Amino acid sequence: MNFKNLSKKLFDFDANYPRTIISSIIFISVVLGWNIYNLKIDPSVKSMLPKNHKIVHSMEMIDELFSGSDIVIIAVESDSLFTQKTLEKLSIFQDSLESIDAIGKVTSIFNQKDIVPESGGFRLEKILDDIPRDSISQLELIKKLKQSDVIGNLVSDDLNTLCFIGQLTSSFEYNEFYFRKQIFSLVNKFNLPENFYVASLPITRATIIENMQRDIRVFTPIALGLCILLLMITFRSWTGVFLPFSVVGFSTLWTFGVMGWLDISVAFIGTLIPVMLISIANNYGIHIISHYYEFTIQDPKANRSEIIRKTIRKVGVPIMLAGLTTVISFLSLLSNTLPRVREMSLLISFGIFVAFLLSIFLIPSILSLLPRPIFLIKKPQRSRINNALVYLVENFMNYKIPILSILIIIGIWLSLGISELKVDTNPDHYFSKNSRLRIANTKIGDAFGGSAQMHILIEGDIFSPKTLQNIETLTEHMKVKHDVITKSYSIVDVIKKMNVSFNGGNPDYNVIPDDKDLITQYMFLYSITSDGDEFDLLIDDIDEPSYTQVLLRLKEVQTFTIAEIVEDTDQFIMANFYDQPPIELTGGSALLGVLSRLVLKGQFFSLWFSVIIIFSIMAIVFRSLIGGVLAIFPMVSSVIMMFGLMGYLDIPLNMTTSMLTGILVGVGVDYTVHFLWHLRDNLNHKNSIDEAIANTMMISGKGILFNGLSVVFGFSALLFSVFVPVKIFGILVISSISFCLFGALVTLPALTSLINPKFLYK
């Protein structure tokens, strides 16, 4: 393909049909924007995984078999917890909590029963039958609590905190916002002098949705305002602001419009779409306007048609290459197994492609209808920025060898930090440590060993001694191997305690009986003695059980630790129970562990895939392997150094930072493409390599600089997010793009001057 002929055809089309182009763009915008209000927000972690993933299937089974896997934990802290006044108040609180439609069952000391041995068998006895009215009955209650299993589960070890565990029914379609409102309204009513703490995944999700909506409302105007400020500083004219700004507006509108028409919900990482498009979409327009103004200064007598033609011929090809590489870098995320990441890659790629099309069609069309920039003609002088860039590059090239050596040493040291890189996808960690949710999780974690829950789903002959022994073996292995697992509860605990009771309370019988018939008899007697719902969370059917689950409680940890638990447990199951009925580790926490592994795997695969593809394109365009290497060198260096820095600073990868490589690879290479393309063009005029570099900086340096600053300014809006990972992501993008920009404007010119590659003279 002849790129120069393509540029000429683009100009001819823009020059001949400007009004048609503008009218068509407006019409498409109205059609796409018509359905934008149908957008919905979905922060669900489960939606991040493929629908056919085994852990998604097992979680759906838990919801179906055990009345849902979502819970709400409410902890109450008081120095006078077991006084008559406090217990009467909390009893009323439990009644109020049970009246909430979404809650199927509430477990606490007010309804918990204990297995008490008696002659020839056992009886079920309420732990708290009567509220104590004096100090003696209080001491008796405390003694009773210590003899039961509630210490560490429903009452803290120091006896200052108790908790209510509400099981949310999966059969009830509840509104998470309304549910959160109900819970906090109830808690606020009973709060003080006692302290109440609430932890629940549905409440976390509702808070995330609310904050996502808030972030979108805040991000968009801030990012737009910063970009307008940058454009005013850059071009000092309303034309220079309006044209790139129109590209940003239309590309963002088209992207969200497509999401509305296709009924694509906005995931957590979807909040970044406006900022990404605002920051990246105006890059192409900045280059066009920058060169248009520069050529106007060079030749004040030229008419607007000649200036536009020269501009398109100069920047048309590098803009196409920059757009192509950016789209490819985001499309590389399609290799990721996470559907939300793939979805995000398609949407961002679409938005950037639209921005590219609008830049090469809309901006020249509008420029062809506007008069020449008179203020530039009246005062044709070089920008101080151009001169400063030339001065910086020339001085840097004078000391290129020692400075490049220092930079290489720094880069190698930073790259070593990659070995310390971790992954954390826990939604609780979206919030700061002093937030209400994190404080509650910490308090519940300290008092009861954690608020996170993991499930082991077992299918088969549930009352078989072999099955129960397998459950016990696996559970004990996990608790011994991983100290973050603090508690476990299963049908095994119930059967062992019943066996003790039927044997006169002898602790030697705290084992699983070898007789299946005896186990069946135990369960039958327990079922007719209880209220009938004691096993709702443990077995699917008391008469003919086919499934059971183990509940594991975890401390608050980063998900890379959970990922290690999941991996170790899967290996243990395969090694020890491969010939037994299916056993699966599942639940929300296990899902986060699996998600973290997939994030890490997808991150590095998409990175190297996009780097290889872009290297190949650059090598073909410049007809040189050295050209391909030089084009990707600043970008690859920036990526490696940024990941290393994240490792050193203990900044984890997550769903948000997983988009970092797409931005770095796609945007970072744009700067080198423009520099190398324009440098080769200047060398064709028989200049020396150093002279050509200086001329390139004089003509194109300002566009490259403000292109990078546009991304930095746009992503600065993320610093105003309420989400910790989003703030960190903003800092990382700002830092890494600054690295890329420095590499393209300083390091690459010095390196090019040093090696003076032959492909630049072709």
CATH class of the largest domain: Mainly Alpha
> How many DSSP-defined strands?
10
The order of strands across the largest sheet is 2-5-1-6
The structural class is: alpha+beta
> Biggest β-sheet: count, sense, barrel?
4 strands, antiparallel
Distance between the termini: 16 Å
Helix count equals 25
CATH superfamily of the largest domain: Multidrug efflux transporter AcrB transmembrane domain
- Number of spatially distinct domains: 4
Average predicted confidence as pLDDT: 78
Shape: elongated
Predict the CATH topology of the largest domain: Multidrug efflux transporter AcrB transmembrane fold
Unreliable stretches covering 5 or more consecutive residues: none
CATH architecture assignment name of the largest domain: Up-down Bundle
The percentage of residues in β strands lies in 5-15%
Task: Evaluate the radius of gyration.
Answer: 32 Å
Share of helix, binned: 55-70%
What does this structure look like?
The protein has 762 residues and is of the alpha+beta class. The chain folds into 4 domains: 1-34 and 237-381, Multidrug efflux transporter AcrB transmembrane fold, CATH 1.20.1640.10; 71-205, no CATH class; 382-420 and 623-762, Up-down Bundle (Multidrug efflux transporter AcrB transmembrane fold), CATH 1.20.1640.10; 441-593, 2-Layer Sandwich (Alpha-Beta Plaits). It contains 25 helices and 10 strands. The chain has helices at residues 3-16, 18-33, 54-65, 84-98, 135-147, 176-190, 201-235, 238-261, 272-281, 283-298, 304-331, 339-369, 374-378, 384-398, 400-415, 436-448, 465-481, 491-501, 516-529, 559-576, 588-622, 625-648, 660-683, 689-715, 724-755; strands at 71-77, 103-107, 113-118, 121-126, 161-168, 195-200, 452-459, 485-489, 547-554, 583-586. A 4-stranded antiparallel beta sheet has the order 2-5-1-6, with helices on both faces. It has a 4-stranded antiparallel beta sheet with strand order 8-9-7-10, sandwiched between helices. A two-stranded antiparallel ribbon has the order 3-4. β3 and β4 form a beta hairpin. The two termini are 16 Å apart. The model has no long low-confidence stretch (mean pLDDT 78).
